[in-house]
Amino acid sequence: SIIILIIIIPDMALLIQHKNLNIYTVFYEEYTSSSSAVIKNLGLTIKDYIIPRINQWDLYHFINIIPIIMTIFGVVNLIKEKNKDLKIYTGIIIFMICSFILSLKVFPYQYLPKILMSLEFAYRNEAFVIFSLCIISGYGLLKINKKYHKQISYATIIILCICAAPFINKMNMIKDNYYQDFGIASGMGAHQEYLPLNGIKNLEYFYHRNNEIIILKNKKSKIKIIENRNPNLVFSIKNTNNKKTEIELPRIYYLGYKITEKTDSRITKLDYKISKNGFIKLKIKKDGKIYVRYKGTTLYNILNIFRIVFIISTVCLILYKKKRMVLKREK
């Protein structure tokens, strides 16, 4: 649990930084909660778990039969052998069953507290089912490896891959245009919950806004977009006449952007604010070229370096200990 905590710390820090601004819709229950009817409608049936078919969101939900078999085998061995960690595994199994029930359409969500309506889609509980399944099925595969022969466990993994291959091919999740430029509305959530409050209150503007830079003040200035690949943006600005030109970028306001202005004499870092519509707002005084890059916040980057060092150190330590164990056995 400590390892998992360290791995997610940078992302949690970034989340807390945005939460502390109190300007994002996702942190307000009235904007993110679904009705019980909507949640149930987007729940699963048992058929969804066993038959590979796509839903209205282009998602598959079925679970390969091999991990299910491995899970059953793992549970049987846990009961037979009275494993010392039986309580932990039992907790995981109970958690998996509860998550499975919560993911179904038949679950009576209308009787749950309103705060749980922020789940939005019942099928999201499937993630917890799969997470639990991986742990128990992994234990089952380990027992096959110890009780029988390594070749059987290898054969199991190969069969699992063969069974999964047609499904992966059908998913076709990575389109030809996957790495092309994304529109402004991409990734905003079913309720546009990742928008700032300014944006959610001006949805008409948000949906109809094009991907251009809008001049708010000093409209005589001329702007030419050089690169526009979300989140990065490069453009030139001319004819400012040393007057402040205020512009709105086609980028939703988030912490972590690094914006610099390159003129003939120097490179200057520019501060940015949130516009009345939830986008990035800039003030520029001189003609030059503006570079917009998403780098992440300073805190996120520091913690991310710590995370990378920790992961590398942990892997090296595990390999070192294993090597020592092998050397001891050989002696």
Label the structural class: alpha+beta
Q: Share of helix among residues?
A: 40-55%
Strand content: 15-25%
Strand order of the largest sheet: 2-3-9-5-6
Count of individual beta strands: 9
- The sequence of SSEs as H and E is HHHHHHHHHHEEEEEEEEEH
Describe this structure in words.
There is one protein chain. By secondary structure, this protein is an alpha+beta fold. Helices cover 47% and strands 16% of the residues. The chain is built from eleven helices and nine strands. The protein has a five-stranded antiparallel β-sheet with strand order 2-3-9-5-6, with no helix packed on it. Strands 1-4-8-7 form a four-stranded antiparallel β-sheet, with no helix packed on it. A hairpin with a 4-residue loop joins strand 5 and strand 6 (267-270). Helix 5 crosses helix 7 (126-147) and helix 7 (126-147) packs antiparallel against helix 8. The radius of gyration is 26 Å and the shape is extended. Residues 173-181 have low confidence and may be disordered.
Per-chain topology:
Elements lengths: L1 H18 L9 H4 L3 H6 L4 H5 L14 H17 L4 H17 L23 H22 L2 H22 L25 H4 L2 H6 L5 E4 L4 E8 L2 E7 L6 E8 L4 E6 L4 E4 L2 E2 L4 E6 L3 E7 L3 H33 L1
Antiparallel strand pairs: 1-4, 2-3, 3-9, 4-8, 5-6, 5-9, 7-8
Helix pairs in contact: 1-11, 5-7, 6-7, 7-8
Keywords:
alpha+beta, four-stranded antiparallel β-sheet, 331 residues
Short structural summary:
The chain is α+β, with helices and mostly antiparallel strands and 331 residues long. It contains eleven helices and nine strands. The two termini are 35 Å apart.
